[in-house]
Design brief:
Rossmann fold, 3 domains, four-stranded parallel β-sheet, single chain, alpha/beta, 435 residues
Length: 435
């Protein structure tokens, strides 16, 4: 007997911060712009990836590497049913990786190995495999990654990779005037005031994206301070800072003036930098938002969690400045957004919070009576609009500069319609791509 799964939309007033929707079957909309573990791992220069899994699981990662034009940095070892039956998965894994590396034109300095759920189920001794690989290839740094999204583990494959990809950074003497921004898909924008704040204190800012080769990547270990601005990087970069006995600052991208100022005070107190008066920065944000509102007026706005990890914070910012936010697409509430949700319950109780993955959305109407502005690719697809801000994973938005940049992106999106059907199926927006 068929049973109704439940509502795919709740009012903000009725939302529960711990669980918005009952998890059941899932619908995967044809929107693939957020980064996956292939994109993320290949940020490490000269690194080579080896995936060890069945051919059906291999399809997505193979296509990602091909779409990036990075097939020369990607290899796979195929597991077959007979390997499971005969108990040869451990041997195939070890010898398969060995064969891959022996056949490469040049041995890479770093190899990211991705076992899968099967290795968990069969209790494969991966520690033994890594010991053997390190003995056979002593010049290679082997990164212990995993592609096991169905496992109920503490960290997702994305979070785990943002941790283990920095394991090759060696203990060394710290350069106290060097700050490394790590764990994000993107560099901070050139206009980000964090850069100026650090420079005024005599600090230099570096990141993974600026590393030209593997030696430069390893030199990131010299930073006296590690900064994370993306939530999925928190555990990993905090672990790195602890391992190397470095200072760690978590400065998540946000959209509240008070929280942004608090982050600046956190930096100033930790590093001993001057604490500027940000009244002028706030005034510039107000001007940018007013200019955007003058163009968009009362047009409906939809926001999704693929665009930024704080979609409710964006909704609050815009609603506070007179914008007509009607929908936010998300399946869970980021714990960092508890205050934003409480504000929305009180000040925007009718705001619709819509699931991204429930199966009812497969047949939900994508037509809107009014021209809609979307912030994020999934909101664009669900609302059927070509006027959308095309960012994922938070982009490089941070601080007061991030608010102004978002306002500018909204104006541009409203003025110029995009080809949604062509753009949103592409993977890894902002990464190197041959598509």
């Amino acid at each position: 007997m068929l049973k109704r799964i439940g509502p795919s939309v709740v009012r903000a007033a009725d939302a529960c911060s711990t669980s918005l929707f009952t998890p059941k079957l899932e619908f995967n909309p044809p929107v693939h712009e957020p980064w996956n573990i292939v994109h993320l791992g290949l940020l490490v220069p000269e690194a080579h990836q080896v995936y060890v899994c069945a051919i059906n699981c291999m399809r997505g990662v193979v296509l990602t590497a091909q779409e990036m034009g990075a097939a020369d940095r990607f290899s796979c070892v195929i597991l077959k049913e007979e390997d499971i039956v005969r108990g040869t998965v451990e041997e195939v894994t070890l010898e398969g990786i060995t064969d891959v590396l022996n056949k490469l034109p040049e041995l890479p300095p770093c190899v990211q190995v991705f076992p899968v759920c099967t290795h968990h189920f069969l209790g494969i001794n991966m520690a033994h495999i890594y010991r053997e690989l390190e003995q056979r290839f002593p010049s290679v740094d082997f990164v212990r990654a995993f592609m096991d999204p169905i496992m109920n583990s503490r960290l997702s494959p994305d979070q785990r990779l943002r941790r283990v990809m920095y394991d090759p950074l060696p203990p060394c003497e710290a350069d106290e005037k060097l700050v490394a921004h790590l764990g994000s898909d993107f560099s901070l924008s050139a206009s980000c005031e964090l850069r100026a704040l650090l420079a005024d204190g005599g600090y230099r800012l570096t990141d993974l994206q600026s590393c030209a080769d593997y030696a430069a990547f390893k030199a990131l270990a010299q930073a006296g301070t590690f900064v994370a601005t993306y939530p999925n990087a928190l555990r990993g970069i905090e672990h790195l800072a602890h391992r190397l006995s470095r200072r760690f600052l978590y400065l998540p991208s946000c959209f509240g003036y008070d929280e942004i100022e608090a982050q600046h005070r956190q930096v100033a107190e930790a590093l001993g930098t001057p604490q500027p008066d940000y009244a002028a920065e706030v005034a510039r944000c107000e001007e940018a938002l007013a200019a955007t509102h003058a163009e968009i007026a009362s047009a409906p706005i939809a926001i999704d969690m693929a665009a930024h990890p704080r979609p409710l914070g964006i909704a609050r910012l815009l609603l506070e400045h007179g914008f007509n936010v009607t929908e936010v697409y998300l399946d869970v509430v980021n714990p960092e957004e508890a205050d934003a949700l409480e504000w929305l319950k009180e000040h925007a109780p009718e705001l619709q919070l819509s699931s991204i993955g429930l199966p009812e959305l497969r047949v939900a109407s994508r037509e809107r009576e009014e021209r809609t502005l979307a912030i994020g690719p999934k909101a664009a697809w669900f609302t059927g609009t070509g006027n959308f801000v095309n960012i994922v994973e938070g982009g490089n938005l941070w601080g007061f500069a991030g608010i102004r940049e978002l306002a500018g992106l909204m104006r541009d999106a409203w003025a110029t319609e995009k080809d949604t059907r062509d753009i949103v199926p592409r993977k890894g927006l902002g990464c190197v791509s041959c598509v």
